């Protein structure tokens, strides 16, 4: 059975971006959750959802998973935009595994240096276009769509795309 790893912030991850794709994927695959918190702790979503943390991001063995999914939300930039995440992201890409990110999380992939020359999308608003700038400054080709797939990379632009994102990951893992 294929195994999926979600990576969420210990506080303020975006609930829909975690719970909706997780519910789609756990019907077919084993799903674990990593965070900047400790194994056994509870991560709290921006909207109040609670998620059990299976392991700390530092303890992830990439060989154990077929896909790694970074979830967005305000907490992602505070808790996951760091060397621990970059190391994990680079390892996922180095081992040619499926790497996915939704909402603001594609900026973390960009800062890790894995989006150079790749098509990707990211959350942005009419007022705040800075996430697009982060992608482009790090070599990504920004595509203004809900979900963008480029080889072993799937990105989505926010909560409204959560279901489409989950289904795209499911489709990719089953192909």
How is this structure best described in words?
It is a single chain. The protein has about 180 residues and is an alpha/beta fold. It has a single domain, classed as Class I glutamine amidotransferase (GATase) domain (Rossmann fold, 3-Layer(aba) Sandwich), CATH 3.40.50.880. Helices cover about 30% and strands about 25% of the residues. The strands form three sheets. Strands 6-3-1-7-8-12-11 form a seven-stranded mixed β-sheet, sandwiched between helices. Strands 2-4-5 form a three-stranded mixed β-sheet. Helix 1 runs parallel beside helix 6. The two termini are about 15 Å apart. The model has no long low-confidence stretch (mean pLDDT about 95).
Distance between the termini: 14 Å
How many strands? 12
The biggest beta sheet is recorded as: 7 strands, mixed
- Helix count? 6
Instruction: Supply the CATH superfamily name.
Output: Class I glutamine amidotransferase (GATase) domain
Radius of gyration: 14 Å
Taken in chain order, the helices and strands follow as EEHEEEEEHHEHEHEEEH
CATH class: Alpha Beta
- Poorly predicted segments: none
How helical, in percent, are the residues? Answer: 25-40%
CATH topology: Rossmann fold
- Mean pLDDT across the residues is 97
Question: Beta-strand percentage?
Answer: 25-35%
Task: Tell me the count of domains.
Answer: 1
Strand order of the largest sheet: 6-3-1-7-8-12-11
Judged by helices, strands and strand pairing, the structural class is: alpha/beta
**Quaternary structure type:** single chain
CATH architecture: 3-Layer(aba) Sandwich
Shape: globular
């Amino acid at each position: 059975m294929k195994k999926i790893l979600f990576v969420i912030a210990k506080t303020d991850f975006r609930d829909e971006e975690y719970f909706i794709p997780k519910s789609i994927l756990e019907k077919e695959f084993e799903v674990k959750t990593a965070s900047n918190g400790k194994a056994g702790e509870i991560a709290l979503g921006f909207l109040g959802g609670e998620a059990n943390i299976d392991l700390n991001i530092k303890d992830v063995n990439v060989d154990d998973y077929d896909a790694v999914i970074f979830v967005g939300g305000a907490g992602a930039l505070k808790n996951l935009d760091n060397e621990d995440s970059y190391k994990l992201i680079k390892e996922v890409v180095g081992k040619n595994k499926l790497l996915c990110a939704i909402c603001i999380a594609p900026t973390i992939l960009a800062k890790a240096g894995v989006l150079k020359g790749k098509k990707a999308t990211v959350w942005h608003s009419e007022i705040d276009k800075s996430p697009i700038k982060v992608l482009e400054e790090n070599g990504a080709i920004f595509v203004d769509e809900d979900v963008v797939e480029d080889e072993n990379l799937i990105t989505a632009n926010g909560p409204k795309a959560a279901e489409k994102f989950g289904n795209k990951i499911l489709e990719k893992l089953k192909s």
